[in-house]
Amino acid sequence: MTAGEVVVVGGGIIGLxxxxxxxxxxxxxxxxxxxxxDGAWYAAAGMLAPAGEAGFGQDTLTELMVESAGRWPAFxxxxxxxxxxxxxxxxxxxxxxxxxxxxxxxxxxxxAYRRSLGLGVSPLGPSxxxxxxxxxxxRLRGGAHAPDDRQVDPRRVVAALRAIxxxxxxxxxxxxxxxxxxxxxxxxxxxxxxxGLPVRPVKGLVLRLRGEPGVLRHVVSGWADGRHxxxxxRADGEVIVGATQEERTDHTVTAGHVLDLLRAATDLVxxxxxxDLVETxxxxxxxxxxxAPLLGAAGDVIVAAGHHRxxxxxxxxxxxxxxxxxxxxxxxxxxxxxxxxxxx
Amino acid sequence: MTAGEVVVVGGGIIGLxxxxxxxxxxxxxxxxxxxxxDGAWYAAAGMLAPAGEAGFGQDTLTELMVESAGRWPAFxxxxxxxxxxxxxxxxxxxxxxxxxxxxxxxxxxxxAYRRSLGLGVSPLGPSxxxxxxxxxxxRLRGGAHAPDDRQVDPRRVVAALRAIxxxxxxxxxxxxxxxxxxxxxxxxxxxxxxxGLPVRPVKGLVLRLRGEPGVLRHVVSGWADGRHxxxxxRADGEVIVGATQEERTDHTVTAGHVLDLLRAATDLVxxxxxxDLVETxxxxxxxxxxxAPLLGAAGDVIVAAGHHRxxxxxxxxxxxxxxxxxxxxxxxxxxxxxxxxxxx
Lengths: 344, 344
Fold this sequence. Notes:
FAD-dep_OxRdtase (chains A, B), alpha/beta, D-Amino Acid Oxidase, Chain A, domain 2, 16 strands, Gly_oxidase_ThiO (chains A, B), FAD/NAD(P)-binding domain, homodimer, EC 1.4.3.19 (chains A, B), globular, 25% strand
């Protein structure tokens, strides 16, 4: 063991971001990853949306999301500067919309909660919504604008991080935690097997559509007859449609879920029916019993896992705080609420 | 040129079946095909359904369909005997169903026409339908049983024909009709380019679902809120869901069409929502101005093309009659109505 050495187990967006920040702190880093694109990031739409994602009772998690959202512009700019890869950080803002009166009533309760946390959410009527986003259905009953919510393309972020780390990422399946060296376990759902901590896979299906660029401009998150869907348009005409949540480990693309996603997507934005369906992707989010991440020491290792739906958003703050902990042994007070010890 | 030689241009189900019958008549046959699975047969569900397919005004075509349906049992048995490949010929019969009262009114007009042609179509009420096929939705307003309609697996039929023909199938893209040898043009939509005859591509999208074998037993062809869909269950749990019709040449999978097919399929058979969506396939049917095939001499060549939705059903009769014409110069009277000359 060399002083200043660390092994990161897991080459998803969290493991790679942690490794990058560790390198920047002067550590000799090796990332062990089984290769491929099995990580949740591969299906992630890349919404950076504290105001669009904060759920009831998640006050503390929301604080961490806001903190990480604030670090994203510099994180994205630094990646672009070091690699020349534009990671698709986009600041158009997010619309949350409701198709029916019932959907609107449900949404309004959530918006009120989010405003109580200090998040920017401005209710809008149907015509104001369509002024901002003409592709929205005229049937919508209402919505809200979250001007501070953002998006990024997770596949590009991973490509940039892999480019920076180069040979430091070693293709290796890890069946037990390496001995004799400081280790960060950032293995997503695989963290359960390596550490015994309660991280479970939550299956998600995402569709990728492709059409005319610019038809849809904002990220749209919405409810259509009780079904939740989000639509994330990229600059090249791709629109990500997500995402189902199931407590299952299989990788099958269920016909009824494709139907539900397409129906909700076209209910909210009818022109999407004319787009091409170019990909159906199933991946598994790593979730914990309270759906907040595991960040910090657990026995002999440091854990950075269990980010559930928020891995992309939380990557910058996770990377900074975990790298500080590894390099300097300093646990930031922000980590307190997310200690793996809460499940031991 | 050798006496008794013939070149077949096109290695889809029609070209291969014609070639097989020509070999059996003592001819030296070469099939020129560009390889791959671009043919309409690759997406075809394989319904052998004169009673389920006969459209208004298609009396003469329906006679040919009935004739070919009668030849299918021997055709399938002979393929199995020569190759050991079970081509999935199934005699469970077909149900045509209607979701709403409007769908039922439309269906009843078509059933009356089909009965007037002598086809077996027995109307059934909702409960009788569900006695035959318990997976059908209780919302259905009515249906009919076509006990003589059948199905076969077109991909297996092509595999069997390719196995029989072996080296006689040569991978070659044909840009003009070969000279100095008798030629059968069976090139699907490509027949237009080679002969100048009016064959146009009609784009079709088919979905393949997979689930528990035996959940659905009958071929189901139906209307759901004005959308037509058919569901063809295979013995292994696969269910083919088809098919859209568009006058387009592209190969894109349109999101709205996937939505329409899945919605109609699950409206008629709700349990299909739990099946896996394993494939989306686009291919182009070769259609003529009157949607009947082109069978017979056209200038220096013999044509067997333009079978539109009925290529699989019409393969046996097409193969027999065209091979007779090639080998013995005898045009069967059944061919009269389908002469390519009607468009010259």
